[in-house]
Amino acid sequence: MTVALPTAAPAQTILPAVPMNPWSRPAFDFSFGHYGPSVAASAAMTTLAGDGAYQTFIELWRFYLDTGFIYPAKMDLIRPYLAEIFDTGVRLAACGEDIGKTCLAHDRGAIMNSLVLTRFYPHTWLIHHMASRQNPAGMVTLLLRNVAWLLDKPEVKYARFYWRPENKRVNALFRGLQRSFHKGGAEISLLKTLAYHHLNIPAVMARLDPAEPTISVSPVTPMSHLEISARLKQGLGQADYEVEALAPRTLTLSGLDDLYRGHGLERTRTLFAARRAGKLLGIALAENSSLGLNLSFYLNTFKIVMVETGLSAADKRAVVHGLLREVCRYYRRQGRDFVVALADPTLDAHLTELGFSSVKQYNCLSLSKTPDRDTALRFISRYYQRKTRTPKVQNALQAGMRMVTGAGTGGQAEVVGVKEMEEAVKVGRLSWGGDSTEKTGRLP
Hints:
By secondary structure, the protein is α+β, with helices and mostly antiparallel strands. Helix content is 44%, strand content 23%.
């Protein structure tokens, strides 16, 4: 089976067919003319192609398909939004390190591993889109390099990871990383399991009760940010409050959105409050971002953070339904026909009561930076050392650890680390794709 992909030219030009896994869906057409993006979006892609970003993203997308990182069920979800996803992907591949990094490891010209870092909140980065073509040497190189990068970057305070609990290898890696950060003195080390819901807006709206006339739901205004922020801390806890930047001055992510808009992208958050006679009864958060920043839409989720205790069952239901109604209306105004929830047990129960079952679960790990950076890096090294002892992996481990333990100190230590990594690359036939600003195939 084959899949056709677009070239740098807008509209109808299609690349030669690319093999897919045998269990994949029938061929589908990525022609931008078919999905009808705006002329401006197509023109922007053509401009970015001159910097190599477009072709890099096409190569990465082929890698995702070939490795099964994009599997049939995921493709079914993202298929209607491919034009916007491609536009976002190209822009993200071309952006600087202020909002994201796209990191690739190559072997003889082919992508073998990918890892993407995205600025999730003002001081929190998401590590995601980790995919591999059975090449642990490349993955350990990417992990060591980029965990060290996050630990050494002063403005980064937190990291977040999502993964499926049934993925045993990733589960062992990230749970071990959590222990190493905790051992190294990280103040925040929070792991929880969330239910993933991807819901059609008309289907949700059809199941909601009529609005309760005594309960009003409206967007939160700046005048009430202080009150809302205090209730969010109470409802979510200190860890999520800090990681998700829920203090009054960052509540709507306006400063972060300015950075994204500098690259033609979007990252916003809107809050809704349910009240009766002025009394706060419930709060919902709705995040809206350019589709494609994450292919499971982690940056486009909503949640009901707080419902006042002591309400009757009927009033509690009316508050939840009122908040859900406004969230759906909000996303519909943004041009979306779906909503996504990474739901805690309480919200999951509300959605289940409406007849919606979660399609899967995700573990969510939030970590603050550890003052003992090398403890975390040594854990990654030991994890891969236990998994495989091939010369290629051992070379990458040794050179990688020499590089990252010298990173951030400046001067000769950092230069020596880079040279050693390049030597290991030659031995292991591994080339470093670097971040999105370096397209030469050499270590940045």
